[in-house]
Amino acid sequence: MKRIRLNPLKLYPQDTPTVRHCPRCHSLRVHHHGWRWRPIRDWTYPSVRLLRLRCAACGATWTVYPEGVMPGSRFSLRAEQLMVLLYVLGLSYRATAAVMSGLGVRVAPSTVLNFVQAQGVREELYRQRRHWQGRVKVRRIGIDGTGVPMAGDQQDPGVVVVVDEATGVGLWVEAVDEQDTQALAQMLEQVLTTFEPEEVITDEGSAYPAALERATAHSKRVPQHRLCTAHFRRNKVGRLRRLRRTAQKRGWGLVVMELRALEALLKRSPPEVWGDFARRLLRLVQKARPPTPGQRASWYYRLRMLLLEMSEKAPQVSGVTNNRTEQLIGRSFKIRTQSMRGFKRRDNRMRFLQLALAVDERAQREGCLYLI
């Protein structure tokens, strides 16, 4: 597990600031105007000393705040950030307030909520501004959906996450049903326009191909659609094994051998090898008829559909996986939301997701769980 690192803050300013000019008239005729003490809630410093300056030209006075102390806040910056971090890690507002009280920082649960909401808004605006300025360009992105619970809403569609497959950093998160083609296409259009990827990796969800086709038509970006190798193999191996067990019970020894050979190729060989083998086996069950309404599909028809999927989708399976996306979802969302009862408001959920992406991005970049 990555460790938490808290950097000490310089809570006292220099006696002579390096930049000494008036904020009103920008004059350099600035003089000391005294000091004053201000109480602050922090686990190390009960109070800080603030420097007062005065402009000799216009008579304006102002306060120089030390690093880590914000004007108008009773808490140090690292205390605010620690509250946000504890909440993102899965603690409730009340539990976060209890932990801070144990450190000697008295805070109400409602104050923790205000800090989390404010930081979530700032992070969302920062991420949007960075995207609008075109600073993030990626070659390969991974897209996957996950469920982040909403309290009392059993029909909640969940969220869709976009990840940079090269670094594992989260790029985009939005409350979209991954089975809704229209909503997914609108999100993908923004993603393609913003990041201009060359490849898009997804699982075999039925809505992804159609949504990606609509998005490319509007955004005029045509990335290659790739299927996650791990998802594809896991799904197809499971279906092959069920068909092979049925054939073994019926005493079809030759069929069992062919299915075992296909399973071995699917695990160890490149897509063009097992794709060609599936096409040759497909000729043997090509005449299998589909079931009539209300009738269960026969063994031959299920094998035919499996071989047809494998032969048609083999060119899209190029050895890439969507593991980076699943890892991000596991680190940032799934584990932490298990201790929560669910979000009552959708905007609160989105702010939590934005903060979780920010924490994970900094952890990947700095090598620690969070850097203050």
General description of the model:
The protein is α/β, with parallel strands linked by helices and 372 residues long. Among the domains are: 110 residues, Nucleotidyltransferase, domain 5; 70 residues. The chain has 11 helices and 8 strands. Helix 3 packs across helix 11. The longest helix has 24 residues.
**Element-by-element helix/strand order:** EEEHHHEEEHEHEHHHHHH
Low-confidence stretches: 7-16
Tell me the overall shape.
Answer: elongated
> Using only CA atoms, what is the Rg?
29 Å
Helix content: 40-55%
What is the strand tally? Answer: 8
Q: Which structural class is indicated by helix and strand composition?
A: alpha/beta
CATH architecture of the domain at 140-228 and 321-341: 2-Layer Sandwich
**CATH level 1 class label of the domain at 140-228 and 321-341:** Alpha Beta
Q: Could you give me the name of the CATH homologous superfamily of the domain at 140-228 and 321-341? A: Ribonuclease H-like superfamily/Ribonuclease H
Distance between the termini: 18 Å
CATH topology of the domain at 140-228 and 321-341: Nucleotidyltransferase, domain 5
Mean pLDDT equals 83
Task: Report the portion of residues in β strands.
Answer: 5-15%
- Tally of separate helices: 11
Summarize the structure.
The chain has 372 residues and is of the alpha/beta class. It is built from eleven helices and eight strands. Strands 6-5-4-7-8 form a five-stranded mixed β-sheet, with helices on both faces. The chain has a three-stranded antiparallel β-sheet with strand order 1-2-3, with no helix packed on it.
